[in-house]
């Protein structure tokens, strides 16, 4: 008797997820499987060889060149995610605590970078970070440096440009969580004598972890897979997995190897997210994090 | 709690400057008086806007992109929103798998995924615009699901239960109590799906046909050949269109009121 | 812009009237379509091709060409995917992709008996399945105010004077052509690209060159005088030269590399004869002459076309006497592209 309503509502909830899951199966998983199927084929002399093999994956994982690119991709994604959290948190807090009339403006400012297409925005970064770019000219004029800094085509430049475009994906989900924290809880903590820092660490931060996790997962996934920023700001000598995958599929025409790179990217992103979810679930399940 | 206001404001001003730096550069270039892409521009003019507005292909592409973004945003909000309810509240078997599946589109490089879409939709004989719509829905659902699940996770179920025990039906309770608490997450979901679709290039590269050329594809094609600030003007118009939409939405439904829930 | 458009449109109309008779005389077995779908470039280049070739075609035949736009790899991918039910009637691509499309059996064989204008075009641009209309050259660009002695070979660029003031195109763009040309000059070739990679590596190790991934970057670096030399395409140098920049294009003694652009009729898409009529028009030296005088100066494929170009364009495009040009054999290139790309990646990442 007690179980029945629970089961019925469970069924209803399952039913709610049904359409989206069916949609994803038919229009995402099927085309993805079709594509990843190529990664188990051979490739020789410019042609696909229709014979099942793991050769693409062994070539990808066994080569020091590609290992280096995998490592670089992960580091870029991690650094981008960390910086988005560090810089995005105060911005989200600022928006949530701003006067209601100012929030749409602040929100629009945060979203603006997304409205300019990736290619154009990346050119903007080139004009800023170039050896003769805006930033170097400003620093030289201020006498802070003597020689222009190399800011493009390297780790620092790519991460900076990535953080800029991905930070909205962290800020918005976090705002969702922050705005639902009952202000009474924070004033109670303060009233009980907790310092601002303790209140933040003990009340605000834990209660917003669901948002931090949601935003962090989105940013990390995108940072691993984004193409335009590393292509333009990183240049041809700063390959990451996304640019390698496109080079192989679009430019060389080696669909099997390119799909294997895409497959590896999927596994890496999925694995990292699962790992994070596991850790978060173990520690913060009661806060509804994952 | 009142935040240590001035410090937070100062730090945030610096972060906003960083976020907006390339936008400022691009918008400034759009007003350049010369053909050069040197920054800051040496003189000012509106000629690049005139050039953009006089190009019929760019304007019709803008229309296509807006339609595509609006439709895919609506579809993914419907599908993803319902799913988020089921997934956030349910504990049925397969819940974790479903949640992962709905987020996986974020984890695949889009230029490569677009090739899979091209083959798949060609095999199913799906015409270009519907194929783009399906593809954009696939890549925007993750944002809806992720933000709404996170939102639902922090909505106190007690309020809903209280409403039910006070005599409201379940649906009434959700509509009157839970949804208002969720508006923040819903606004985020809508904004993300609209913008992600509106500025998406990879899918259009592979799926477009003469009837469905999007603005990002036009801008990308343009930039291959010509070295002038027209593209900056196009991007500025792109920003203005969406900002305008946000403000119209603000007038019509009052985003700020939604964003002010609980405050 | 508007004034230029109308002048060009007028010229197009005048030229069209001249050919209309020839086109109209030919009997048409096929019913006439209202429009054909043309897979072509977007942006201004697509417009230039439209003004100089498509508009005259429409003026004569009444057939409109509807554009399916994109870059080469994507348009080729679409062509291949829809091979059973083609969505485009005509396609223009770079020679490498035309080679691939031909190999895959995606293009109709052209009946040259119906293309009177194509006869004088050299066989390297008059293939069984496609006809070239325009040729880019990949060679050396230098700033004449900063480079006293014009470079005569690729290895002249390996010079400390150019440290930090040189760029090389990405391998997946024209870097492939550059590396192969250097390899050929250094005793290698299709069988061995390493001599070419060795020179690029030396430049990379000693001169900290910039490797560009987009044409915009190259235009900015050359236009703003941020580099003195580059391994790149001729047309971009000519565009900047017209704008008064002190840039020159040099053909290395061992030859620069031709990259041609051509049109083809898509197999099974129908209206083959009308497609061929359009391709014949792109071979007409008058239209080619006008096209190469336009904003994107390339070498025409018809030997008489420069005679119809503006004197300014004819002078700009004239090749030095005896200059060699290399035509790549994509039958040799494509089977090795995968391996070469990996060697390039290793070189550039090292």
Descriptive notes:
The complex is a heterotrimer of chains A (290), B (263) and C (350). Chain A is mainly alpha-helical and 290 residues long. Chain A is built from 13 helices and two strands. Chain A has helices spanning 3-37, 55-62, 64-97, 103-115, 118-129, 134-141, 155-178, 183-191, 196-207, 209-225, 228-234, 241-252, 255-284, and strands at residues 42-44, 47-49. Chain A has a two-stranded antiparallel ribbon. In chain A, strand 1 (42-44) and strand 2 form a beta hairpin. The two termini of chain A are 31 Å apart. Residues 1-5 of chain A have low confidence and may be disordered. With 263 residues, chain B is mainly α. In chain B, 75% of the residues lie in helices and 0% in strands. Chain B has helices at residues 5-30, 47-53, 56-89, 95-103, 110-123, 128-153, 157-165, 170-198, 202-207, 215-223, 230-253, 255-259. Chain B is globular and about 70 Å long. Residues 258-263 of chain B have low confidence and may be disordered. Chain C has 350 residues and is α/β, with parallel strands linked by helices. In chain C, 45% of the residues lie in helices and 17% in strands. Chain C has twelve helices and eleven strands. In chain C, strands 1, 2, 3, 4, 5, 6, 7, 8, 9, 10 and 11 form an eleven-stranded mixed sheet that branches. In chain C, helix 2 links the parallel strand 1 and strand 2. Chain C is globular and about 65 Å long. Chain C starts with a helix and ends with a helix. At the A-B interface, helix 1, helix 3, helix 4, helix 5 and helix 7 of A face helix 1, helix 3, helix 4, helix 5 and helix 6 of B.
Give a brief outline of the structure.
Chain A is an all-alpha fold.
Give the arrangement of secondary structure elements:
The complex is a heterotrimer of chains A (290), B (263) and C (350).
Chain A: H1 3-37, E1 42-44, E2 47-49, H2 55-62, H3 64-97, H4 103-115, H5 118-129, H6 134-141, H7 155-178, H8 183-191, H9 196-207, H10 209-225, H11 228-234, H12 241-252, H13 255-284
Antiparallel strand pairs in A: 1-2
Helix pairs in contact in A: 3-7, 3-10, 4-7, 5-11, 7-10, 7-11, 8-9, 10-13, 12-13
Chain B: H1 5-30, H2 47-53, H3 56-89, H4 95-103, H5 110-123, H6 128-153, H7 157-165, H8 170-198, H9 202-207, H10 215-223, H11 230-253, H12 255-259
Helix pairs in contact in B: 1-11, 2-11, 3-6, 3-8, 3-10, 6-8, 7-8
Chain C: H1 2-25, E1 35-40, H2 43-61, E2 64-69, H3 72-81, E3 90-94, H4 95-103, E4 131-143, E5 166-169, H5 171-185, H6 194-207, E6 210-212, H7 215-223, E7 229-233, H8 234-242, E8 247-250, E9 256-265, H9 272-283, H10 285-293, E10 299-300, H11 311-317, E11 325-327, H12 330-349
Parallel strand pairs in C: 1-2, 1-3, 5-6, 5-7, 9-11
Antiparallel strand pairs in C: 3-9, 4-7, 4-8, 4-9, 4-10
